[in-house]
């Protein structure tokens, strides 16, 4: 081999290992030859050493990204103590060369002295940079490479693999009637960066294309690249460059608008011509979407450069009445009116420009360069710190943004009958990425080996991705340059708008730039400059040429290209992310992607040497002198076939969906281990699965979900989950001591004996003790307590040092992740006695238990039993606490609150007993413990309970304002707003097609004929439902379900019986609709907890649904929809309510005689305590609901708009055992039989009328106190009858 240079006694340092060998510099490769150390053999030793064949490491020059030279051995510059330093060499007189390669391999070569090192460094700089210095593409190895035997035997060469006409025929785009292939660019003069075959609508002439090209950057007009055959709609993808809207944002092109309009119109006409009248897709709305892949700031800044983004109103022009569109017969009569305006929308996808992407990769390369000092999985590196540093590169985040854009386009096309036009700035970077990835997901052909090759040729090569410029072929940072002659310009020169994004021209028009555009452009300029500054640590001093190229002075070093960017690398990494989630959907494996990445930079094949199809075929005629990269893969297909591949025959016609948040490091590409880059959780999961073990620590599980991309890292959630982890370790082995219950039972027995002795001494016969009378045994004389030597501690003081683990109260705003964290904790806790309740369910269960125990006592008393009631049973709430502690030592409550005084008093007593029996409470709430009881009435009574809660539960405030529930779906929301003039038609279509999924034959039937009435029973009260469908869907009207006499038990039963809830006519809830708003929120809570599918029609948008009358910024349209009919009546009711409340507070009626035994207060003291602050209307105007409405709005948005909520498998009905209020025949028969067996004769079971305190029968004197005449007569007649 000619031109070889050999250097002996060279030491290679790589990944923590060193080996000595010979360095060979060939014209196209640097080769390191070495003899590996011999390994001892276990067989009989031979007389001499076993010869070992030498090995070689080949590094092609274009792969080298950076080269550097330093004095001293490389070993002196690293801190890896595990590497032993050879004392036979003088490491201080040595010098070393460091090679950093584009395939993320790193090599350090130590030379004996600096003279040899300098000579090699100069030689390498010349060899690596020769194509760029000579400005000669033929200096690359591809023009000197000769095919091997396998590549010579191929029948079909790689250059012949892609035929655009055949590919478009396969997609059905060469129909003649609707589409045609234009040859306007046959000689590449129309658009030098476009292919010579362009698919356009048949109705568009080449003359229109010529005029339209003047309005698009680089003449890159909208051209169709894909037609979706996986759906009967046949939607299309078109790609182009940004429009030249200009500084005033007023420039427009009639021809460009006509071209895009005809693209949409042709697809719609073709769709109607192929769908028969009975096809259900005839009713699907037609949509069109323009996707600007840039951040909106970048797009706006381009206006200052004469470009910009579309004025979407110009593309919604009226449809012609004489068009050949054929509407379906069975659609609504408003269809033709709807045809007047075409639905065209535009979105921005926030994918950053080439400079930001380059900066992100540079940060990643720096980390990998430092990591190369250590062996793979050496344990020397700190994994958490490493992963934190990797996260800061933002590489995975930017991949996720790209995949999110692809996900949205894929779902829009396949599910929503949407045509898509994609562009970025010039339409060859971000556009190529997203367009190719979307087609990869939509068409299973592109996921085969051959199909993927065609996809690359079509979307990347033919549509002008700048492979040479973006890869910086022939450029090596740090390489020495001699000042060359002024290079001749390439025949095809093009300045990228991606680069020009960062510069604002200084001319007369600059003064017209608006302040917004100036700020936007400045932001992008600073971002690009920051990325450019981080491109290399080396300085470059040289002259700047006319086109931005650098002509370096003698002995200067190359500092990198400002046009270089890892665009194709990002595409392959994105394909890997989708492949990793769906390994059976791809015919090729990850090795195929990795080798394709390598050969993009190797320049061994001619496929990726040029910036356009024109350069490839006409300028340099690469196809005549080089091999295609596909010859390499096709000659050895066995290496790249995925054995897990299965032909896709699923329900989605081969369309691939993925989770764009589930991104991980492609550790194989970066030459490190999965544990190093993605964390220990991956390997631990595999090891635990092999050992049939499960990770149950909630904090570790939460971190693993973040690393898997299932959750987004959130500092507030991390702090809260750390507290859950501490709680987990406190209670994992906890068992409440039985002695607590024994002590409580003995105490009650002692009180019972004391009561019996008092009865005996007084000569009275035994009788059941009334509830509350036991309090006098614990009542103390304040004067006597002062003289006692032993202090009687309060419940709060007792529970502070109680021998049970403290629980946890998690407070936070709506949607911050409290319930999700509770889900992780509840599912991971391996405790034998735990229970998860929503507060509404729990309080209903408590009320039911109270009712049941009171009923049993009343029944026993009326059956004439002589035995006195047991004191232990007299404590009803204590008995319920005993049941709770037996069933669930750890009680988990969602949405913990104290909404009214009745439930608050019960919760206070119940949980005091529960804590004293050793129970542990874990709860989430939207309020701090001090604010759980927000009512002003008797609030002082609950201060002690707040102290009890703080004593038995640790509190944490998440302090997060982020609402994760509001993740807008890419599909149409399950919501119709009456402000839309076509809401009737949209509502009918939504219910029939999505909620009911009925066949097209039943579209003409009214809804009431498709469904039937039904009923359910709650507390022996039968509720009629006017309309239900298929026994799993119910149709509700707001007036019926939220303005009637319904409670949370009714709503829980509804959500547990019907998987789908259709709620119609939801009005605006004003501040005076307190009851309706509370019921509606309770209904939403029940639907949310059971994860039902919700379809809803509202008067206004969700954000304006609750209390808009309290705001000053509402629109006139919403103000006009506010209810007015009852305003006067409500004002009168409000005045009467205030006056009655004031009288009741100042003159309280006290039926409980035990109250009078308390210390009497003076009139002035009582008057001060009962003063009413009429400015604080929280208790009357629904102010307390204002906080709950935030949660309701958040939950509505999630239920009607989130993709995660759309799965019907999410439905989790509440178990029947937790719904005791429903009547069941077997339960009723059992109770009836028990009562009949207990009867002594045929006397009625219930004797006398008992008031609801269960304190005994009503007496005549008590009846006289009633003020209501009807109730008084009813009580008197009942007493007289008995």
TrEMBL record:
Pfam family, one: AFG1_ATPase
Organism: Suhomyces tanzawaensis NRRL Y-17324
Residues in the signal sequence: none
A molecular-function term among this protein's GO annotations: ATP binding
Gene3D superfamilies in the cross-refs: P-loop containing nucleotide triphosphate hydrolases, Pleckstrin-homology domain (PH domain)/Phosphotyrosine-binding domain (PTB)
Keywords from the UniProt entry: ATP-binding, Nucleotide-binding
InterPro entries the record matches: ATPase_AFG1-like (IPR005654), Myotubularin (IPR030564), Myotubularin-like_Pase_dom (IPR010569), P-loop_NTPase (IPR027417), PH-like_dom_sf (IPR011993), Prot-tyrosine_phosphatase-like (IPR029021), Tyr_Pase_AS (IPR016130)
Catalytic residues in the record: 424
Keyword check for Nucleotide-binding: yes
Transmembrane residue ranges: none
Chain positions recorded as substrate binding sites: 353-354, 424-430
GO CC, alphabetical: cytoplasm; membrane
Source organism phylogeny: Eukaryota, Fungi, Dikarya, Ascomycota, Saccharomycotina
Family as reported in the entry's similarity comment: Belongs to the protein-tyrosine phosphatase family. Non-receptor class myotubularin subfamily.
Domain Myotubularin phosphatase residue range list: 158-670
Gene Ontology BP terms: phosphatidylinositol dephosphorylation
Protein name: Phosphatases II
